[in-house]
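Honest question from a wet-lab person: if I give you the sequences of every part of a complex, can you actually get the arrangement of the whole thing, not just the pieces? Trying it with mine:
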Amino acid sequence: MSFLEVKKVSRFFGGLAAIKDVSFEVRKGEILGLIGPNGAGKTTLFNVVNGFYHPSRGEVFFQNRKISGSKPHQICQRGIARTFQVVKPLQRMSVLDNVLASSFLRARDKNHANEIARESLEFTGLYHDREVISKGLPLGKRKRLEIARALATQPEVLLLDESFAGLNPAELDESIGIIRRIKDRGITIMIIEHHMKVIMAISDRIVVLNYGEKIAEGTPLEIRENPLVVEAYLGVSPSA
Amino acid sequence: MNRYVPFIALALLALVPLLGLNSYLMHILILVVMWSVIGMAWNLLSGYCGQVSFGHAAFFGVGAYTSGMLYSKLGISGWWGVPASVIVVTLFALVFGYICLRLRGPYFALATLAIGVILRIVAENLVSVTGGDLGIMIRERSWIEKTRYYYIILGIAAFSYLLVHQIIKSKLGYYFVAIREDQDAAESLGINTTLYKTIALCLSAVITGFAGAFYTNYMGYIDPKVVFALHDISIITIMVVMVGGVATFSGPIIGAIIMVVLAEAIRSIPLLGTAHHTLFGILLIVIIIFLPNGIVGDFAKLKKLAGFSRRRS
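Yes, you can. This is the full assembly:
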């Protein structure tokens, strides 16, 4: 059986299907890119995997156990952590306290929690900002704080929701480096991203959603040449 | 150095009765200590965990009535109410929390507002159980003199302070603040928000219940309008913490001193005395505008303000 499997998942809001009958697998240790035009249902899919939404139909399996229907904190305890597209730092807490709040999850005691938090901050290059109240962080660092916090729960799978949006080129390079190093640690990554250059460069495989349906799945090269994907992004060419 | 301040303060407070204060001053002192206990309890749930309660009178009243009814129904000393209130208040908080903690933000606040009023009306009408509007009178007062009451409430206060302090410095404390700052983020970090909100509610309720049980024994008389009062208990609880400093250790203590002394001072002014709630309302507005973090939280700002006005004069 597969590592993480999304099986025929649909999610309706009223009469609107945000995702329809989507199935795919995530293999252990890979980076899976999730792309699609605005409103394609990418974040909804994350919310289903992470437990904020229960699928209206279908199921999600992680390591052969069903996780759809569980609460987000239970899914996080199983080893799936996420970041948010709209960053949600614990505003009035310092950067260190933000990460501490999540590192307690797998820590034996406070010293251990401190150790995990420190490690995770050094990994994301935020250690020097640890005393800063997170409200005052610039966007680039807040995005990285999201990653640091998710890593501090010591996950097996990391769901990254647009961790690159709004970053300047220097920050972009830094974040790509961080993601590659997360992969090197053996953590599986599922990433939503609009930045095509980035997603093509770092993904092992890509799943494309459009209007809530999966229209393509494959390596970056296959995706780039898939006519359905080109159509979804650019529209139908008149000659076709 | 700062670590020892609470212990020094406790030692000094323990020596106060040796000054031979008259019984009115001792009464004020007891009220200050009692209000700081309630403030600390509210601070735990609403200040740290962010679940704002407008109904702490409910927990205060349940504690008070536990004590009162042990005396009136079972004929045993009302002081048994202090330990017994732990069980009764916890059960009550669990039921209330199960129903209401699924509400967020203002909706939870409104639910707490309702529970305080509901309990008052229930206590007024369940005459066979609570004695209704006549209340419960404890005929045999334990002591005439106030010193022992003072030490009992001081003990409760020291215990509460230590408890809150230890909790906030531990994993629980981080979880509470995380829930306050963003419940969805906390949930996605693996924090069982329902469980930890329930823990915060129960702890806060139990500490408030202690104060209520003490109140029954100290005052010797309770009735629904007094112990379930919205404006005299629930709202003053919030004011104590707002004035002193939300989510600070010493805020509730500073707030209790100011509120109790202020209440007594205003009440003693002829004509103006009956308007003390109006004046509290004005004070609250001033605090929210100028010192939103309270006196302790905005101490630096306060010092700057004082320095500024001195230079001008």
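Two things worth pointing out. The interface with chain B takes residues 50, 52, 71-74, 76-77, 81-82, 84, 88-93, 97, 100-102, 104-105, 107, 110, 113, 149-150, 153 of chain A (CB under 8 Å). Chain A has two domains: 1-79+156-240, 88-154.
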